[in-house]
Every structure is written in C-alpha cells, then in structure tokens.
Design a protein that fits this description.
The chain has about 250 residues and is an alpha/beta fold. The protein is globular, with a radius of gyration of 18 Å. Strand 4 and strand 5 form a beta hairpin. The chain has one domain: Rossmann fold (3-Layer(aba) Sandwich), CATH 3.40.50. It has nine helices and ten strands. Helix 5 packs across helix 6. The protein binds adenosine-5'-triphosphate and magnesium ion (MG). The site of magnesium ion (MG) has 4 residues, from helix 1.
Amino acid sequence: MSIVELKGIYTAYEGGEKAVIKDLSLRVERGEYVVIGGPNSAGKTTLLESINGLIKITHGSASVCGLNVSSQADEVRRRVGYVIQNFYFDPFTPFTVEQVVMMGRFGRLGLMNRPGRADYDAAQRAISLVGIEDLAHKTIGTCSGGQQQKAMIAHNIAKEPEVMMLDEPFSNLDFVAREYLQGVFKRMVRTGVPILMVAHAFDGLPDIPIHLVVMNQGRISYDRNCRAEEVEGIIRKECGVSENARVADRK
Ligand SMILES: Nc1ncnc2c1ncn2[C@@H]1O[C@H](COP(=O)(O)OP(=O)(O)OP(=O)(O)O)[C@@H](O)[C@H]1O
Ligand SMILES: [Mg+2]
C-alpha cells in the first residue's frame, strides 16, 4: 500500500458551496520527493490539508500511513509533519525556539507524559540539523520571518514524521539556507520519509528523481516523475505560460 493514497477525492471548505478539490487521485510512495506546483488558488494548500485531515473530504477515500484520513485524522496528524504556508507569531509569544522545537515531540508523548532523554535528543538533533543553535534561547516572536520558518521546520523534523509536507517552506529563506535545507530534505527522503513540497521556485532542487504534481483549478493536470531541471518548464507548459512570457519577464 502507498503511504499516501487518495482516490477520487472532493473537498470543500466549511460553508463553501463549490468543491475546491475535484476528483483528485494521487499515490505517494516511501522515499519519494514530491514537488507540487501550479498557479495561485489551484488548490495546492488544500491538497496538503486534505492529506492531513484538516479539511473535510466529501467524496472519495484517503489513506495515509494505512490510516483512514476521515475517521483517524488525529492519528494521521501525529504521523505527518506539516510546515504551513503562512504563520505568524505574536511578538510576545513566550516560548523560546528550543521550546517550540520540543513541542514537535508532544504528539508522540501524549498530554500526560513528560519529555524524556529521547525527546530532548530529538529536539537538539533537529536544532543542529537546521543550524539554529544560536536561536535556541531566543523567544520565537522576536525572531525574523526566516528564523521562524527555520524553527517550524526544526519543529517538524523533531516530530520524526512518517511523511513530511511543506508549503512554500523557502519563501522567507536566503539562498544559503534554501540549499542547505534541500540537502536535509534529500537525506530524509533517503531514509524513506517522503517529502511533499509546494513550491513556486525550483532552484536548488536535489538531483534525484522528482515526482512532479501540477495542479490547476482543483485538479491534477500532471503526475509523473521527471528530473529536477525539467520541473519549471513542465509547470510553465501545464499552466500555459509560454517561453515568450518568460523572456518578457526578464526584460
Ligand atoms: N478557508 C477557506 N475557506 C474558503 N475557501 C478557501 C479557504 N482557503 C482556500 N480557499 C479557496 O480554495 C481555493 C484553493 O486555495 P489554496 O489555498 O488551496 O490555493 P493554493 O494553490 O495553495 O494557492 P497559493 O499558491 O496562492 O498558495 C481558492 O479558490 C481559495 O479561495
Ligand atoms: Mg497555498
């Protein structure tokens, strides 16, 4: 069984009349690096939220890690890492970066248990993997946007998820951080954890086969493996953006 298996799903937001995602099917296997592209409002974030059980699936079936997303959403969320697209910490949020990363362990721990050695170790490993040791004692609300993004990536790495989903994780990151973190995700993929990444920029993708999913108006229009350097061209073609527009962009 695939680690993510969506069959003919439709999803609609609360109070929304129309389905945002329409008759969408997708399989993701262990160790795949999935890039999800497509224009604004295509339904990319909604797709991730469907996988994570955050939005109601009105038709079709979804299973993640062998669990039914509709009836076992809490357990699915414990096993899936999800770095959301837009987040904002109030400047007075009292938690340090280290505490925020540690919170990534809470799903495994359960409410009544105190973190143990293994939890502290996992949090420290995530902090050093993402390279934010210097931020550990800074309060999250006083961090820059990029620093907060790194902290949320570390939080999700500390979780030791079975599937890692990231929604434009690089939007606030400088190119050094982007390249470095791409290396981190490549290593996660090697250990079998699939990455599902929504992105609009494709520089620095790892040189491994990419499972490319292109979305358009709530549907998948492309779902195949390709090479990293082909990703942008395929998305442009799928979305009807011509080479001429690309040249005009640069002028
Ligand atoms: N909370 C919500 N309630 C109602 N409709 C929503 C909600 N969130 C998103 N939508 C609608 O669902 C559609 C898909 O939105 P989604 O956020 O999934 O797009 P996206 O592909 O992630 O776009 P972007 O690249 O801008 O992030 C849009 O038409 C949007 O207006
Ligand atoms: Mg989005």
